[in-house]
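Why do we care about 3D structure at all? Because function follows from shape, and shape follows, mostly, from sequence. That is the central idea of this module. The next example makes it concrete: a single protein chain, its amino acid sequence, and then its structure expressed as tokens.
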Amino acid sequence: MKRKKRNIILEKVLVEDYAAEGKSLARVDGKVIFIERAVPGDLVDLRLSKSKKDWAEGYPVHFHSLSPNRVTPFCSHFGVCGGCQWQMLPYHTQLAYKQKQVEETLKRIGKVQLPDFLPIAGGDATEFYRNKLEYTFSTKEFTTDLKQEYGSSGASGFHAKGWFDKVVEIEKCWLQAEPTNAIRNTIASFARENNFSFYDFKQHSGFLRNAQVRICTTGEVMVNMVLGEEDERKRKQLLDHLLEKVPGITTLLYTINTKFNDSIFDLEPVMYHGKGYVIEKLTAGNGEKDFQFKIGPKSFFQTNTKQAEKLYNITREFAALTGKETVYDLYCGTGSIGIFISKLAKKIIGVEVIPAAIADAKENAALNKITHAAFFTGDVIDICSNDFFMLHGKPDVIITDPPRAGMHEKLVKKILDIAAPTVVYVSCNPATQARDLNLLDEKYCVTKVQPVDMFPHTHHIENVVQLRLKFDTLN
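And the structure:
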């Protein structure tokens, strides 16, 4: 070990295993080292960014040898852009690590009895699988030496990891199918040619800010151009040019955002071309017709359409519906899960705190001619009262799909009080899911577990768990 400018360098460290959140790990003198940008089998010199008594964090500064498990990344931006972390790993290895992460996390944090895990449902497509991307336009370009800046000509792509004002200039993104690159490059080149300013995130000024692109399996394409200032002449020039050069755009909107943050949920996009929304479809199989979903510029919808079909089919299977059940869909969002499983249920009750999402859910139910689904705005803890149950019936099945933070402890207690025979817990964060399973263990046992990979080449993982009410609670 040697020290240099108070930075600790560990030499010739063998990366041994995978840890959660995309990091690998090694052990040096009994201390666990969590390592970014390395894979098991790499032999590296590490610079520690954080060092505690029993653990440390670090990153490679030199590779003595590379893991035999590595493959050549297919994207020229890999390693600079943070959109994909695992392109250097074969996809089957990625899936094995994700399966292991779910199993170890549920065992370590959940501390409940678990069945044998079903194998992870991997993606059939590992490139161009995202239906939605958001590009950023910035006055500053991120480069590896951190010195080059585009100045007034700007950079178009994705925020660099750890930088709020610098953007990685993207030539071709492999996450979303065309015309995504044509859209981004057309916007950026036209702006540069006409001296339209890119957004300065420090000064909070500039014309081009973001472009949200949604491409559906139906072939419909929606672009929402987010502008940092109102200028009708420049706006019309840009949008007309985009429609001319990329004729596949079916809906084009613009949003004026002069706030200090990028969120548009409190803003109103303006329709410029098309119908103002797109239609996406999900296939349930079993001879059923495809479900259609109307998606606007502010609607939430699963980002990987084909994997969403797998996720929802697994959820429906775990719900074990016979056609007689009342299903409560908690955190229902725009109603996609409830609508997807509706043909096998007697009644669907969806609950979501965001009013706009509930409006979308009602519209999507009508679009699919589903009359036995009802959606309610509010907190589940407040809505699910005895009077509500008297009116709509107590649930036979509860489906819960919370955000990464998991369920609020009061909601867990509410589910325990309701005591539905079956609970299906869909999670995008196995750690918080495991915590909640520990709390639900008071009345429920875990009977099925299946991970689903929604985002190939990243460390993110979804997991579906079936819980059944313990027999002794029925007495």
